Amino acid sequence: MTGDSDQKTTLYQWIGGMEPAGRLVEAFYANMDTLPEARDLRAIHPPDLTETKRVLTLYLAQWMGGPGDYSAERGHPRLRARHMGFSVGEAERDAWLLCMKRALDETIPDPRGRQAILGALAPLADWMRNQQPAG
Ligand code: HEM
User: Fold this and answer.
1) Transmembrane stretches, by residue range (predicted)?
2) Residues of the chain with pLDDT > 70: what percent?
């Protein structure tokens, strides 16, 4: 192989690495702190989000094809299992995705990058649901 033309650019590279990932997570939790739609979602998170922010940044960096620090620290993500302790229905899923969509709009200048990330996170957030819709 002489070049990297056949290597895919990861989302992690696309957004510019760990620093933009950290800004995205800061904006995500700032939205969770302020959006009325996210009040209940915020309430089930710890008051101090320092550690939560650090862990979500590592997770998203790894999920976007960046360094594997999350798994080095915490093992296989088992993300659905890790959320079993929380009630995740459509409302929680939608609130989570709303905070993330706004955060992407605020921190990722490239609309294709934003769309690629949100488009891949949406089914992941839906898969996290452990409550059936009412009715
Ligand atoms: C694509 C969607 C989601 C992703 C990628 C995601 C990711 C994560 C990650 C990586 C963690 C840390 C897990 C660990 O300790 O290793 C976490 C924790 C958590 N997640 Fe999610 N999550 C998602 C959706 C949701 C939803 C819909 C809810 C709503 C109930 C939720 C509520 C929580 C809570 C309450 C914590 C614990 C925070 C803490 O104790 O610090 N998550 N999530």
Assistant:
1) none
2) 95
* Domains, in order of start, for the chain: 15-127 (1.10.490.10)
Closest residue by Cα to atom 35, ligand 1, is 45
Q: Is 62 helix (H, G, I), strand (E, B) or coil?
A: helix
d(CA 29, CA 99): 7
Report CA-CA distances (Å) from 70 to 28, 43, 65, 129, 131.
Answer: 18, 25, 12, 22, 27
Kindly give the number of the ligand 1 atom that is closest to the alpha carbon of 45. 35
Atom of ligand 1 nearest to the CA of 56: 10
> Is there an atom of ligand 1 within 6 Å of 55 CB?
yes
Tell me: pLDDT of 118 over 70. yes
Whose C-alpha lies nearest to ligand 1, atom 11?
56
46 CB less than 6 Å from ligand 1?
Answer: yes
Per-residue confidence band for 2, with pLDDT thresholds at 50, 70 and 90: very low
